[in-house]
Amino acid sequence: MTHDEAHEHQTDRQQQGGQQLSLTGSVALGTGVMIGAGIFALIGQVAELAGGWVPWAFLAGAVVVGFSSYSYIRYSMANPSSGGIAMLLKAAYGPGVIAGSFSLFMYVSMVLAQSLLGRTFGNYALRPFEMQDSLLWVPVLAVLAIVGAALVNVVGNRWVERSASVTAAIKIIGIAVLAIAGLFAAGVSSLGRLVSPESATPDQGWLGFLAGVTLCILAYKGFTTITNQGGDLKDPKRNLGRSIVISISLCTVLYLLITVAVTGSLSVPQIIEARDYALAEAAEPLFGAWGVGLTVVVAVVATVSGLIASLFAVSKLYDMLRDMGQVPGLPGRREHQSLLITAGLAIVMAALFDLSQIAALGAILYLCMDIAIHYGILRHLKEEVKAKVWIPWVAIVLDVAVLVPFLILRGSSDPFTLVVTAVVAALIILAQWVIVRRRREDSDNDEQESEQLR
């Protein structure tokens, strides 16, 4: 399917009234993807890099994502579709290796986010039984969570929206209650840790702080899935941008509340020690067993609903990539193919990698894709989408400013993950080169056959 055909197909769907999502449903799905593993699993990992500056790192992550969101909003408002990012890259770079590779960078990073959600579900669900570090049961529960979320998606869009709306409310209220109660229980004096000398500068200095911001971005990057809702959203040209802004704003407030509460309750070494389940650990000294129980319930709801929303959105992206000829489909009926492929890949990654490796791999691939998005807007699409050029340039500078320190520190502490990332990136690029070459050969053969028939 060509770019024009894909766009016409999308337009036909919209004219036929195929939209299912309201603005509220879109925000629920967006926050459903965002409020999940990011806040529940990454606080400890961010603390390893940013020290006591965890809340500031999450605030800085919101600033970076705020600038990044501009490019997505401008393009999505002008060209809403169910494959927003894929269509943006294709419009910017043409139907070649570059667009296909960076689209798959995004796809793989979102699949990694699903495996992160799955493992976070396992960690928190096992916390009441003191089995949160189990090498067997954490991945087993992760796989079960992904399978369950996939089954919910099989039911259909309307059920996904309804479940997302309910669980989003539970998550937002639950996290807000935990955060506000935590602030009161820890006392106002605990806020002094945010500016105290021992926590003012991370052990690894500003390099560590900036690297920590890279991981914080994972807690926000789910907003990009909203760009894939264009084919299902009512009045997408008006509501896509609003949905993205509302989702990022809601998450920023919640993340700041909860990280301030955690850093007020636990010291940095304590946060790092319980890095995969820091919120539950922070609740115990403040509220006792019921606090841990409430945290576990909210975490389970957040991760499962995040999986449901993410599988819905990322399957849409795979559908568009398949229609554009960038990825293969399975033999037989197309119904639920993208869902099966996406869930299957997430299961494999959840079984093979731990939270730290998943987060690092996903962050690197996402930021590389994000830079390509902004450069594509600047070089090819700024007139079409009426973009103010200084904003994408600032977004690129900020992306590089946090990515480079992360690569430096990760390379010194865990070079294996960087090697895996490089191998994954190389395989994606090679696969796209083969696909594009084969597509061109098929096109040439079709033209020759057409000429012979004449």
TrEMBL record:
GO terms for cellular component: plasma membrane. It is a multi-pass membrane protein. It is found in: Cell membrane. Keywords: Cell membrane, Membrane, Transmembrane, Transmembrane helix. One of its GO terms (molecular function) is transmembrane transporter activity. InterPro entries: AA/rel_permease1, APC_superfamily. The chain crosses the membrane at residues 21-47, 53-73, 93-116, 136-156, 168-186, 206-223, 244-267, 287-315, 336-353, 359-378, 390-409, 415-436. Its main location: membrane. This is Amino acid permease. The lineage of its organism: Bacteria, Bacillati, Actinomycetota, Actinomycetes, Micrococcales.
